[in-house]
Amino acid sequence: MDVATSEFLTKDGKHDLDFKEQPANVHSGSSLVELYKEFVRDFPIVSIEDPFDQHNWSSWAALQSVVNIQLVGDDLLMTNPRGITKGIEKKACNALLMKISTVTESIQAALASKVVGWGVMVSHQSGETEDKFIADLAIGLANGKVQERNIMF
Questions:
Q1: Could you please report the per-residue DSSP string of 34-89?
Q2: Helix 103-114 vs helix 81-90: angle between axes, to the nearest 10 degrees?
């Protein structure tokens, strides 16, 4: 489930789940943790990507401590070595959505994530392509997961 929560973050740091309708259905980070716990309990959810804003490290860590599913850092980590290190230190997630920058940086990001037991899912940047390179990279890194929006394989 790719929530992309940063897209409906309010100016005061809350999450407006009905941002297109009134009255608003606004949640704090802690109430959103509880909502995700219910979802995981009631539905066969195995993975949540970007459940919180990329600056809300405490809510990420709180959710990670109470659910036993894959929590994928995309906006949170940005395939950035410093972001990955911070995510590991704060125990904020347990998987990396690896978007390709350079091949060298991508391999370093994957290895840094795997060494602490995280899953790694390879993905395109926002400019999709029909090239199969990410599938080849995922196999080469033994990731086992690819996030793809085009049907091509």
A1: HHHHHHHHHS---EEE--S-TT-HHHHHHHHHH--SEEEESTTTTT-HHHHHHHHH
A2: 10
Contact call for residues 105 and 129 (beta carbons, < 8 A): no
Whole-structure pTM value: 0.84
Give the DSSP letter of residue 101.
S
Per-residue pLDDT of the chain (153 residues; tens, 9 = 90+): 999 888 888 888 888 887 667 666 888 999 999 999 999 999 999 999 999 999 999 999 999 999 999 999 999 998 888 899 999 999 999 999 988 778 888 889 999 999 999 999 888 766 666 777 888 888 888 887 777 655 544
Pair of tokens at residue 73: 């850092």
What number of other Cβ atoms are within 10 A of residue 16's Cβ?
14
Number of C-beta neighbours around residue 109 at 10 A: 24
Q: Which amino acid, residue 135?
A: A
